[in-house]
Protein: AttH domain-containing protein
Amino acid sequence: MAAKAFGPNEASARTAQPFNAWDIIRPSLHASGGPWGWTHYGIYIPRLPQPYQYLNVLILVGLVDLTIFNHAEFAPSGPKAVVHDAEHLTTVMTSTASKGHHFVRGYDSSTDCEFPDSGTPLRWGKDFSMEFTFPHKAVVTGAFETHGWEYRLEFDMSPQAVWFIATPFYEHLSLPISGTAILSGEPIPISGCIEYARCKPPPGLPLEIHDAVARSTNYFIYHVVELRDSRQILWGEVRNGFMPPRKFVHVRTVPDGRVLDEYTTELRVELLDDELVTDSLGRQTRMPTKFTASVVVGSGRKMLEVAGRVNTPLRDGAGRGFVGGYDAVVMYKGEETRARGMFEWVDLELQEQKANL
Structure:
């Protein structure tokens, strides 16, 4: 019932077409098609030199209804409340692997931020900004004076998107990017991706079912892997107690965004080692340190394998999640190469399994 309530998913059809929906990339919950429950921007740059290794940005506007992702600590009744109305809550999370390079803050969008109807420029206090020159260019600036670090990203966005979800109630897309990062005054060539999502409860889904799905979602992984030959792999999985696991793998080229292969149910993830980690609110979660992700088709033919070993500090991500980077050995259609990856990872299933041992 929950899956049907979202209606047809047009993700594959939209991925096959050039991207021209620049007008939907807006933070406002009252943008066209709304009111939306929340919107999201993400930036993922998996390969940077030491000491940075990766750079990520996770932005949420509104209070996400999925328990594993919501930042209730910044909501009206939370211990770090910054708003009187949850609709005005927005959070910024960004990090690299360098010492001290992590930032998490909640803002009141009605007083602390600038979100024009045009979707640009966007500002979160004096800390963070994004300026788009649609359709192709963007400048992203982070200046965290109290934390002692800053950066500037200048990049081009490909007009070819991968759509993960495309329904009237939930849209989530990824665009390849290439450009320059300026870190500690040093210009560094970059490639990666920028993402946008927006979501609202589907009217055909009873509120009690929607709430139950939100509470039961306890597993989310999303990875971006950069190979040295301009190929990029996006892979991940989401689980809850009401629908079959949603799995996805997309192999594409950067910067043009041409999709080489797509897989869904064939993804298999195996955890080889894990550790107990504690987030900034003192919550403990088990996190993998070594894993493999593979795509096996037909009678057992392995089309793709990513063997990763986490080698960066784990930073707070969205909600109960963590962000980190890893070295990887990738086997793709019989060819092996070394790569660099990064992830968002929330695995409360693993936590529950360990607790029951």
About this structure: The first strand starts at residue 38 and ends at 45. The chain has a mean pLDDT of 91.
